[in-house]
Design a protein that fits this description.
Chain lengths: 154, 740
């Protein structure tokens, strides 16, 4: 079937031939490999995308179900060459190591700041509770996002 | 040439600073290419058929049903392995594909290549393997009794009749931990059309992969090129070959590029794990608290194949006493062979397991002596000039154990918990914990580990620096696993060359000699040493050639004059290739004695935990650390290693364990194998103890593993302090606290 939806502001139509996930559609059919597949069952958040304003694990969404939806992936974060403040802060804070969880964390954080420009440290922790990072111990990620919160709150 | 230039001392991105990593922005944008993201024209997908049994005889394999599926191009079994039938990092004992028998759950039996991933996996499911199940041997103690072992290591040092007045004995157990790197095993093999192959796969050590592919494919070394590739974490899981040989076999068989990506459940079956351990200890001290004798029995379950059990057992045995002096020591180490999944390298390999044992012993010895546990440790602290309690090696490099203990002790403690929001309580969002049943505990632990390869291994790394029109290019095959090697090698080159424009590039096995494995906390010291020497030599040669007195981005200077502009240096093709070796070590003698290690590092951890003693739930509030880092070349990256390593130690302390039943994994997925989330992450304050080391670049020591050595033991000590329970096994489960 042909599925039409909006992704990062662009209208696309994709041929969905098998009962695959949105993550498969993004990575294999649309060539958007920024969303990562690390657990295939919604536990790690590496495939996080924003679907109609809601943060979801794209591995848990059927590709056919996104018809008519609006989607933001990591590729749609930031504007042109400019990094989003979340990306900027994570780069400066050393919040990136292997980088496999990073796109999912960026998307989850962008979703958080979209809903709450001045989150508390606890808000940040709760918002990222669905994103596993195996490298950083989360310290630098928290420092980065707390910095974004303090700057956006002033 | 322009005339207005003046000398520019390079001040940005040099050693001691924390420049942003060059791959940071691509990773943040989702543009960084991981092995999972690779594609090639005409690419097929591979899938693996795995044993559902821990041990069985293979009666027959019928690949016809798989080959009958449309779009399937190959289904290969043991008979199709063109060269050496087995592989292995230290001993080639593991079948590329199982032949007559399978020896662990998940062992590869056949591989399939098809037009797409779904078809490949469906076809793999159709391969008909008839097994005759056999009784698996899953008890390592029984394997030990049957002498079914990979290695035994006996250490005897000093007067074996020495006896103390205060004796503490204990038995301890460590469960099987998984590295759980976020990126699963993945790779792409591309045939070169002339019988050779290019491999791009997740790896910590491309040269050793290449050697094993060459052997099993029966090719000449120049026919296989292994390329460093984007890798989503490692922690030891990427040292051993898994899909590498399979991919190359399928690519050469089909004449098409073949890609394979393990699913998470396969990843658990497809890489080695941290060895579970059974430890027996006897510590004897005099009445003042001086260690008089330590006896230890160390039993590791190596699983079905050798992997790195020999090296892990070596570490567990040599570091069985910890960072303490003792002149009478007996250690008996055994690495058992069973039908459990193979175990091998994981961050801190071997040193982690025994630390849980010896640090618990030190706390109990202090209690028996009526002594403060930190006073006891300080009294016995091992330092420069002392002899290793196990090997007798005189420690010739800086080892500031006493400083680490005193510094950690002096760090301020957090205020008692007054916050009653659920997220600060052990039960978390489960809302199960009543604030009144929460007890706070504080625990300390200290650990020691070797840096670099040991026991006479020829440990070296090659690096090259070339001058190009865009600056200096560092070429290496040393794998960046996320730790920041690409950043630190550039910093070293900038500092030593005096040039700001430095780029680190990875080249394949045909273009440079080995950098060794990205493991054993060694790359900053060994590959870093190669880069430092290459940069130093290159600068010296250029100065000598042009009678210059300085080099910067503009070129060679003599006094106030730029005598050779940079483009001329680039045109001249200046390059320097260096192979760096660390101080040599020896194999152990019959008593485990010798100059076994090239360098050491110590670290200490202080954990603060809140425990719901009624429900057995633990909140790790804080883990502070003091770590011997030699000299921190990139303090932010060091901190990143410390925070990440501590959380893996916390994971082993309270949640991470691969559970086996009759050799079968029961929780090979991220729903059931619990990993620490951001809500589990403690606050961390890290104190970097800087006593420049003797051979790392600028005095640097490896920093990746020490954070994981003693953090587990510290957390459990804190839980004991809060709960009063014995807790002789990790991970500590709620029932161990609430029901024991």
């Amino acid at each position: 079937m042909i599925v039409e939806f909006t992704i990062n502001g662009e209208q696309v139509s994709a041929h969905v031939s098998h009962p695959g996930s949105l993550l498969d559609l993004l990575r294999d059919d649309l060539g958007l490999s920024g969303s990562k597949d690390a657990c295939e069952q919604g536990e790690c958040g590496s495939c996080s995308v924003i679907l109609d304003g809601e943060l979801v694990c794209s591995c848990l969404v059927m590709a056919a179900d996104v018809a008519g939806s609006s989607l933001t992936t990591v590729e749609g974060v930031g504007s042109g060459d400019a990094l989003h403040p979340v990306q900027e802060a994570m780069q400066r804070a050393g919040a990136v190591q292997c980088g496999f969880c990073t796109p999912g964390i960026v998307v989850a954080a962008v979703d958080l700041f979209g809903r709450n420009p001045s989150p508390t440290p606890l808000d940040i922790r709760e918002a990222l509770a669905g994103n596993i990072c195996r490298c950083t111990g989360y310290g630098a990620i928290l420092r980065a996002l707390e910095l974004v919160a303090s700057e956006s709150g002033t | 040439m322009t005339t207005s230039v003046t000398r520019r001392r390079v001040t940005e991105g040099v050693v001691g600073q924390s420049p942003a990593r060059p791959d940071g922005v691509p990773k943040l944008r989702g543009e960084f290419e991981f092995a999972q993201d690779l594609r090639a024209e005409g690419m097929l997908w591979g899938a693996t058929v795995r044993s559902p049994h821990a041990r069985a005889r293979i009666v027959s394999i019928d690949v016809a049903p798989a080959l009958a599926v449309g779009g399937v191009h190959a289904c290969l079994t043991a008979e199709d392995v063109p060269g050496r039938a087995t592989f292995g990092l230290e001993h080639p004992d593991q079948p590329v594909l199982a032949g007559d028998e399978v020896n662990f759950w998940g062992e590869p039996v056949a591989v399939v290549a098809a037009e797409d991933e779904v078809t490949a996996r469906r076809a793999a499911g159709l391969v008909e393997v008839v097994y005759e199940p056999l009784e698996p041997l899953t008890d390592p103690a029984e394997a030990d009794r049957r002498d079914q072992v990979f290695r035994r290591l006996q250490i005897r040092r000093g007067d074996q009749t020495a006896r103390g007045t205060v004796v503490v004995e204990g038995r301890y157990e460590v469960g099987m931990q998984d590295q759980a790197p976020l990126g699963t095993e993945a790779g792409l093999a591309i045939p070169d059309g002339q019988g050779g192959v290019d491999l791009y796969a997740t790896s910590q050590f491309v040269h050793v992969d290449q050697e094993q592919v060459v052997a099993s494919l029966g090719l000449r070394p120049d026919q296989v090129r292994s390329h460093p590739t984007g890798i989503g974490g490692a922690f030891g899981a990427r040292e051993d070959v898994n899909l590498h040989i399979h991919l190359c076999m399928l690519a050469l068989h089909t004449g098409r590029p073949v890609k394979m990506v393990y699913h998470r459940s396969e990843s658990f079956a497809g890489h080695v794990h941290r060895h579970p351990a059974w430890l027996r200890y006897r510590h004897e001290a005099d009445s003042d608290g001086r260690l008089v004798r330590v006896e230890a029995e160390v039993l590791l379950d190596g699983g079905a194949y050798a992997s790195t059990t020999s090296a892990v057992l070596a570490n567990a045995s040599y570091f069985a006493v910890g960072p303490y002096r003792c002149d009478s020591v007996a250690v008996d180490g055994t690495g058992a062979r069973t039908n459990n999944p193979p175990c091998g390298a994981m961050r801190g390999f071997g040193a982690v397991q025994v630390c849980f044992g010896y640090e618990t012993q030190m706390d109990r010895l202090a209690e028996a002596l009526g002594m403060d546990p930190l006073d006891l440790r300080e009294l016995n602290a091992l330092g420069t000039g002392d002899s290793m309690p196990t090997t007798g090696q005189v420690i010739a490099t800086p080892l500031p154990t006493g400083d680490v203990i005193r510094s950690l002790r002096a760090m301020p403690l957090p205020e008692p918990q007054t916050e009653t929001h659920h997220s600060h309580l052990p039960g978390g969002s489960g809302l199960t914990t009543e604030p009144g049943q929460v007890r706070r505990g504080i625990g300390y632990a200290f650990g020691i580990k070797n840096l670099g390869f040991s026991e006479g291994a020829d440990d070296y790394a090659q690096a090259r620096i070339r001058l190009t029109t865009s600056g200096a290019v560092v070429e290496t095959a040393a794998i960046e696993v996320g730790q920041g090697l690409v950043t630190v090698l550039a910093q070293i080159a900038r500092s030593a060359l005096g040039v700001s424009r430095v780029e680190v590039t990875h080249v394949d096995t045909s273009k440079i000699d080995s950098a060794g494995s990205t493991s054993a906390s060694r790359q900053t010291q060994v590959s870093g040493g190669a880069v430092l020497e290459a940069a130093t030599r290159l600068r010296r040669k250029i100065m000598s050639e042009h009678d210059g007195d300085d080099l910067d981005d503009d070129g060679v200077w003599r006094g106030e004059h730029l005598v050779v502009p940079w483009p001329s240096l680039a045109d001249a093709g200046w390059a320097e290739t260096v192979t760096f070796r660390h101080p040599s070590t020896t194999q152990p003698d019959d008593d485990g004695q010798g100059v076994i290690h090239a360098d050491f590092a110590v670290a200490g951890h202080r954990a603060v935990v809140d425990v719901d003693v009624e429900l057995g739930l633990v909140k790790v509030v804080r883990v502070d650390t003091a770590q011997d880092v030699g000299l921190a070349l990139n303090p932010a990256a060091v901190r990143g290693q410390i925070e990440g390593g501590i959380l893996q130690g916390v994971g082993l302390a309270v949640m991470e364990e691969l559970v086996l039943k009759d050799g079968v994994m029961l929780n090979a997925n991220f729903t059931d194998y619990l990993l620490p989330t951001i809500l589990d992450a403690p606050e961390v304050e890290a104190l970097l103890i800087e006593h420049p080391g003797s051979w790392g670049p600028f005095g640097a020591k490896g920093v990746g593993e020490p954070p994981t050595i003693s953090s587990t033991a510290a957390v459990v000590a804190a839980i004991r302090a809060a709960s009063g329970k014995q807790l002789n096994r990790v991970p500590v489960r709620p029932q161990d606290i609430a029901l024991s």
